[in-house]
């Protein structure tokens, strides 16, 4: 009986080709692959440990940076407006809200691999009640990213995301048609790289640009040093930061108001 | 005098807005960015150290795997032909050459970050003199990749890359029109992600698929387990490898000839 069963199995498998030595070799090969898998997992864990350790080292430096930035008027507004991607997202009204932006913070979750948050803190302002607007990105083990965000509690008649304020003031829009603040309310889930609609992918792009490009070195954009670089060319850009100190001179050039002086002369 | 010089500079800078405190703040900010840059470099170095250490741990496992594979006939040929990208690169003639393929090896340079090599070792064969064909990818600090490769020393009338052999034998081509072996002779330089022509990008794709997909787990392809997975969906695919042991049974399933049993019944 045993023999027959075995025989049948061999027939199924076109046994002529499948000699026991081959089966054995493939089993051994599978064991080696399992070993490799374990080594790879251990390597990933070790890399993660390094990233966690260095995130802890970076945190107080980021905190110190936030304190310094706090004393530079319109720092984040200027950095956003000088950024080739982010500058297209702020409407004229959004820019007025950004005048009240007190701090920006990007924080990995403690284990690094399960997500991060982006927090905008605002001074009391005529637009919304919130002191903070936060967007949270959670990565699952299955490779999906889910997003939650604070929908701003707009004050009466100040909701920038329904277009009312913009129409009322009849602004010419230098930048975005839509409000950046829509981004906080929107939520989405990213399954994997394929099959994302463009809209969703822009949605994640904003987060990734803030986290991976603006946040590591906002001074580069504040100083407008990224102008001549191809935006895609991030790696080389990092080498160009040494002469960033000269940046202050470029500050506020655009807001120059030559008319004021003339009026003074006439009176 | 000093005062005047200072004044002139301030005028240039639209000084009304540029108080010394602001200049100081921006200088401090630059210092913090420099600190961050140092932390980031240290973090990269530590990650690299981990990768180097684990490459050393993997090497003997890969060597052991190569020995096992050596005893499985046509292992690499089968894995190539079962791979959704690589299978399109082997012409009928290439497949005959692959019968002489004795081993495949992918090795990072010792420092990991400066490059890697892909080596195909062949048994003595009627096609070319070389015992090994190697392709070397060198990364520069500036982000470019340069490639060198062994051009096969074809035996008389056996050069698959000039199309002569193929024409002579008047083969219907199930797979590639061009020979895979052209890939060894081609050389190219990749400056950055943007601006690569399609041709160059296919060129690097072959190397990347071999290095990052085939090499980590060729058994998956040999067993034909990757069939139902979207090729792009690599991350999830790795979770599916646990049941790879059953692979031997699936081997050659497609060549099953159901007629045999019926014939047995009739006789």
From TrEMBL, chains A, B:
The keyword NADP does not apply. GO terms for cellular component: chromatin; nucleus. InterPro entries: NAP-like_sf, NAP_family. One of its GO terms (molecular function) is histone binding. Residues 225-243, 250-267 have a biased composition (Acidic residues). Residues 217-267 are annotated as: Disordered. Residues 22-53 form a coiled coil. GO terms for biological process: double-strand break repair via homologous recombination; nucleosome assembly. Pfam families: NAP. Keywords: Chaperone, Coiled coil. Belongs to the nucleosome assembly protein (NAP) family. This is Uncharacterized protein. It comes from Marchantia polymorpha.
């Amino acid at each position: 009986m045993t023999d027959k069963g075995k025989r049948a199995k061999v027939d199924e498998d076109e046994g002529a080709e499948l000699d026991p030595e081959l089966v054995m070799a493939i089993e051994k090969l599978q064991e080696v692959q399992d070993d490799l898998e374990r080594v790879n997992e251990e390597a990933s864990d070790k890399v993660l440990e390094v990233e966690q350790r260095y995130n802890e080292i970076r945190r107080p430096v980021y905190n110190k940076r936030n304190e310094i930035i706090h004393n530079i008027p319109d720092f984040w507004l200027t950095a956003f407006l000088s950024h080739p991607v982010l500058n297209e997202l702020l409407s004229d009204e959004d820019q007025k809200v950004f005048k009240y932006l007190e701090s920006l913070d990007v924080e990995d979750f403690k284990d690094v691999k399960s997500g991060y948050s982006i927090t905008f803190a605002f001074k009391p302002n005529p637009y919304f009640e919130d002191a903070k607007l936060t967007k949270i990105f959670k990565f699952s083990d299955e490779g999906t990213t889910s997003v939650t965000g604070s929908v701003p509690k707009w004050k009466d008649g100040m909701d920038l995301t329904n277009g009312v304020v913009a129409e009322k003031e009849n602004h010419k829009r230098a930048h975005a048609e839509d409000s950046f603040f829509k981004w906080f309310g929107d939520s989405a889930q990213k399954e994997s790289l394929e099959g994302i609609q463009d809209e969703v992918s822009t949605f994640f792009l904003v987060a990734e640009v803030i986290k991976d490009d603006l946040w590591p070195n906002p001074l580069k954009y504040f100083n407008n040093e990224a102008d001549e670089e191809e935006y895609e060319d991030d790696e080389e850009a990092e080498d160009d930061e040494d002469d960033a100190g000269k940046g202050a001179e470029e500050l506020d050039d655009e807001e120059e108001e030559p008319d004021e002086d003339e009026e003074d002369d006439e009176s």
